[in-house]
């Protein structure tokens, strides 16, 4: 009698297999753009389950190592990475993951096309998406504040030539200032007419990058500094000197993280690191926020991509694994679990791509844009919804990755199934680029500063008026009215009361915006939308 061996889940072409992505792009993009990109996405959909996935597996299996000394005792602080990791750098350049956002050859649709590609890439990239997020953020920052002086650097960040393509770090977090960046201690001192940085950076991902943006406090000639975040300025750093040695940087250690094992994240000591001031003195936090608003959007795109990967694997597996006389996907309880996961996934997908659409429209502004908003209002909505999106998609992905792991039973808990990597990696989404609480407070900050709540309500009502299904539309309209009343009542609680409700507010807004963005589509899966609304409204 032959022994039984369970067939594992299989990943097919990740573009062909993704009905939601295909129908979304089909509805959103002009015919000309669709014609240009479809074959490329199809080709890439195949690559991310073949050679690219192998690179990621290799990088994951061989995490970076720090060689602090050479054989003769010289301090070298060399971070050695797997060939898979360097190959992923080449793939990122060739596939134009960053370039697509800046070449803007698809006009206001460029960000949608770029993020569709990132979404395919991320779950097979061993988190190479993290350096790409910071690279895109740095390109945005230099585009806004760098001017001609940084044109060459900008060209490196947006190149599609592997030997020209640079990635960037974002050195913000310090021991004294994680969420509260205003406590940063790094000092910038002018020595012989050049800026030199001194201090310790506590979390610096992608240390193998060519450059970084860093915050530091300028020290006057009398040794004084301005305290708080208004004392922080922004600096550009090239990580290596022309001879290849580090730019007066010591790598204290590599972080032993819960997940994202292939990604080199280090603690650094800056010991007179040569740097160039970017933009205005004392406006570092404001300027770097243009970078972390991009990285927060990357966080969401990669988060929904990771969500989809485990959902795809769990769905495939549940069509194969038999228990109690039928495949588990046919048992009502598993079928319901998968539908619930899919409902939350589709909500996150639509919310994410709505923000991508707004971002693209803000960057390539046209008066008759798809959102019917002027540029200032596009910016205000982006400012308000980016923190909500980030915290919302991150939390859903963390929760569902844990839940969906169970579909695989014991094998989901075993390393070489690959599922534990997805589980560990998912946890970073709600920490990377700001925790759920910090982002909830950021929502309050945006609401206060921009007074944009009425604008959001008006925008959501306008979007709803374009939808066709009257039942769902009525329900979401009623929910929006309820939310508006709840927000007004919560405002009356005063600052402390409002802060205590900030998280609740963020998730309520997240649910609502997800439903509205979902309803904007032409081919809505109403069964899933109803499941979503029943659960979250
Ligand atoms: C991928 C795997 C990674 C591996 C492991 C990684 C583990 C995690 C490692 C990390 O450390 S990730 C980084 C986590 N840290 C953060 O994301 C920072 C979180 N903190 C915040 O976001 C704070 O809200 C912030 C630092 C921005 C608050 O600082 P302040 O000192 O209270 O600033 P303030 O006064 O609110 O804002 C200063 C200026 O910036 C203002 O402009 P004005 O001067 O014109 O008034 C603000 O309007 C502006 N600003 C702040 N946040 C903004 C913004 N502008 C646009 N968008 C924003 N989000």
TrEMBL record:
Domain Acyl-CoA dehydrogenase/oxidase C-terminal: 282-447
Entry's transmembrane regions: none
This protein's UniProt keywords: FAD, Flavoprotein, Oxidoreductase
Source species, domain of life: Bacteria
Keyword Ribosomal protein: no
Limits of the Adaptive response protein AidB N-terminal domain: 13-161
Domain Acyl-CoA oxidase/dehydrogenase middle, residue spans: 170-270
Cofactors required: FAD
Gene3D superfamilies: 2.40.110.20, 6.10.250.600, Butyryl-CoA Dehydrogenase, subunit A, domain 3
Record-stated family: Belongs to the acyl-CoA dehydrogenase family.
Database matches in PANTHER family: ACD11 DEHYDROGENASE, ACYL-COA DEHYDROGENASE
Protein name: Acyl-CoA dehydrogenase family protein
């Amino acid at each position: 009698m032959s022994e039984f061996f369970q067939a594992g889940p299989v990943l097919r072409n990740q573009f062909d297999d993704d009905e939601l992505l295909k129908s979304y792009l089909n509805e959103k993009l002009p015919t000309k753009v669709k014609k240009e990109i479809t074959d490329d996405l199809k080709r890439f959909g195949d690559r991310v389950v073949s050679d690219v996935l192998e690179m990621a597996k290799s990088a994951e299996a061989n995490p970076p190592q720090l060689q602090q000394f050479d054989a003769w005792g010289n301090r070298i602080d060399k971070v050695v990475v797997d060939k898979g990791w360097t190959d992923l750098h080449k793939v990122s350049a060739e596939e134009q993951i960053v370039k697509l956002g800046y070449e803007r050859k698809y006009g206001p649709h460029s960000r949608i096309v770029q993020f569709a590609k990132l979404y395919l890439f991320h779950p097979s990239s061993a988190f190479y998406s993290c350096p790409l997020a910071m690279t895109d953020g740095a390109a945005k920052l230099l585009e806004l504040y760098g001017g001609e002086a940084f044109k060459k650097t900008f060209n490196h960040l947006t190149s599609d030539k592997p030997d020209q393509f640079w990635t960037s770090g974002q050195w913000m977090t310090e021991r004294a200032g994680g969420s509260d960046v205003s406590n940063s201690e790094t000092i910038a001192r002018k020595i012989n007419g050049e800026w030199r940085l001194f201090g310790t950076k506590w979390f610096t991902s992608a240390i193998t990058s060519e450059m970084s943006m860093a915050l530091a406090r300028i020290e006057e000639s009398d040794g004084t500094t301005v305290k708080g975040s208004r004392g922080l300025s922004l600096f550009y750093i090239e990580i290596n000197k022309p001879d290849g040695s580090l730019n007066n940087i010591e790598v204290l250690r590599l972080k032993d993280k819960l997940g994202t094992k292939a990604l080199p994240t280090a603690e650094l000591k800056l010991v007179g690191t040569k740097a160039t001031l970017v933009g205005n003195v004392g406006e570092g936090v404001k300027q770097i926020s243009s970078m972390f608003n991009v990285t927060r959007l990357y966080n969401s795109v990669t988060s929904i991509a990771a969500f989809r990967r485990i959902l795809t694997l769990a769905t495939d597996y549940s069509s194969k694994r038999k228990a109690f006389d039928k495949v588990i996907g046919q048992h009502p309880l598993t079928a319901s679990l998968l539908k619930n996961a899919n409902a939350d996934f589709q909500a996150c997908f639509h919310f994410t791509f709505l923000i991508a659409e707004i971002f693209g429209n803000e960057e390539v502004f046209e008066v008759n844009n798809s959102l019917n908003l002027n540029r200032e209002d596009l910016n205000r909505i982006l400012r308000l919804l980016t923190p909500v999106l980030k915290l919302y998609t991150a939390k859903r992905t963390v929760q569902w990755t844990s839940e969906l792991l169970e579909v695989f039973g014991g094998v989901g808990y075993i390393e070489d199934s690959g599922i534990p990597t997805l589980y560990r990696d998912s946890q970073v989404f709600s920490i990377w680029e700001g925790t759920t609480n910090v982002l909830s407070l950021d929502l309050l900050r945006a609401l206060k500063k921009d007074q944009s709540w009425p604008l959001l309500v008006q925008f959501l009502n306008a979007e709803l008026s374009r939808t066709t299904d009257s039942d769902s539309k009525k329900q979401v309209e009623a929910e929006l009215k309820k939310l508006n009343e709840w927000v007004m009542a919560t405002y009356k609680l005063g600052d402390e009361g409002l802060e205590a409700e900030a998280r609740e507010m963020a998730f309520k807004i997240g649910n609502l915006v997800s439903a509205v963005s979902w309803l904007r589509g032409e081919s809505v899966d109403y069964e899933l939308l109803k499941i979503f609304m029943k659960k979250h409204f």
